[in-house]
TrEMBL record:
Transmembrane segments: 12-31, 43-60, 72-90, 96-119, 126-145, 157-178, 190-207, 227-247, 254-273, 279-296
Segments forming domain EamA: 13-143, 160-295
Main location: membrane
Topology with respect to the bilayer: Multi-pass membrane protein
Subcellular location: Membrane
Keywords, sorted A to Z: Membrane, Transmembrane, Transmembrane helix
Protein name from the UniProt record: Putative permease
Record-level GO cellular component terms: membrane
Keyword hit for Transmembrane helix: yes
PANTHER family per the UniProt record, alphabetical: EAMA DOMAIN-CONTAINING PROTEIN, INNER MEMBRANE TRANSPORTER
Repeat is among the record's keywords: no
Amino acid sequence: MTTNTAESQPLRSWLLLGFLSLVWGSSFILIKKGLVVFSPGEVGAYRIVSAAAVLLPLSLPRIARLNRKQIGNLMAVGLVGSFLPAFLFAKAQTQLSSSITGVLNALTPLFVVLIGALFFKAKITLRNGLGLLIAFVGVIILISVKEGSSLSSLSSINSYAFLVILATICYGINLNIIKHWFEALKPVEITAISLLLALPVALGYLISQTDFIPKLLYQEGAPLAAGYLTILGVLGTAVSLIVFNGLVKIASPVFASTVTYLIPIVAIAWGVLDGEVLLSGHFIGMIAVITGVWIGNRKKRKKVIPATSSNV
């Protein structure tokens, strides 16, 4: 019985990893499709609303168990870890391709390490530092490449890339907060309740400060664009979170983290299929970013000590 379970885990783990890579890697093309009709603010707010709404069965029964401090901290998690990045990614993709955005998103693990070292007394290794340096060079290349311009031209830098970098910094802060402040809560509970707390802000903004509802009712193509954003919120945030935590349980955090390297591949594939133009400099920058993330996030293998050894 145990043997069969152990044998079935690798296939199940790979299937879950493939699902997450496909869904999260598709997030950037879904944002792009939503921006055809809706403004960046509308895209970001509706993404939070749809994600929070589908998690209401998980969040509502649990929020009553929390004290005031926990609720305040979870509000910070909802705003920093979900609300702000949703707006930043949407705004960035008004001037950035979904392919480039997907690659820049891969910087998240490195900012987790860097922010942990700066503010949470975590250790940063030489490998982490080398990874950061290589990824940084890749980012400079990516944001400098434009058709007909040289890599060294600072005037060619696309400043909207810094919005994506700021979003990954938000993710880095958020993950460190979760790690150090919420040891007693499960990750699914943290995300569901934090989104619930961000829901009034997102919904209030969407209804009172935007033309989302008139567009949805009267503008051509709006229902389809809203459908893309619903998939983004429901699958890309709510369902994927549950799947990710399930993957960590049956496999390992290290195996689950490999999704970081697969997301850019899916994002690039969608971008190419959608007609996005990628120059040779883009590919050089992409390789540098992914290599840097891989080096900086790679764990040193521990030597296995035989059970018969005198070392206990």
